[in-house]
Amino acid sequence: MVGQHRRRIRSPYRKGVKFEYKVRDKLAELGFLVIRCARSKGTKWGFPSYDLVAVSPAGKVYLIECKAYNNARPEKRAREHAEKYKCEYVLITPSTLYPFLDKIKKELGVE
Questions:
Q1: Which residue from 110, 58, 44, 111 is spatially nearest to 88, judged by alpha carbons?
Q2: In whole angstroms, what is the distance from residue 8 CA to residue 59 CA?
Q3: CB–CB of 78/88 below 8 Å?
């Protein structure tokens, strides 16, 4: 294959990871501590699958599910689990990312 370019295959997994990184980086720019849960599929104990755990500078914890497509629906179990631990569950899609960031900026008093 010398001199030939391989065609990049865009799998749904890679697209999702790229979107998770984008959300992570945007939150980190606002001063959040963000932990990415790689290959999040939930656990054998029944915990929901969160892609990111983010802690705001004020100490508020967000359990975030990222979907790289817009017609995703929030999981009831994920929301209930977050409420149990006094966290906020957020489903972020490409169409909800910037409204969510605007809300966060307003809460933090950042422009």
A1: 58
A2: 40
A3: no
pLDDT in tens, the chain (111 residues): 455 556 665 788 889 899 999 999 999 999 999 999 876 565 555 667 799 999 999 999 999 999 999 988 888 888 998 999 999 999 999 999 999 999 999 999 987
Q: Are 104 and 52 in contact (CB under 8 A)?
A: no
Which domains does the chain carry?
Answer: 12-108 (3.40.1350.10)
Cβ neighbors of 54 (< 8 A, separation 6 or more) are 27, 32, 33, 34, 35, 61, 62, 64
* Backbone Cα Rg of the chain: 16
CA proximity to 35, closest of 23, 48, 18, 47: 23
The answer to whether the pTM exceeds 0.90 is: no
Q: Which residues of 83-107 are buried (b: 16+ CB within 10 A; e: fewer)?
A: eeeebebbbbbeeeeeebbeebeee
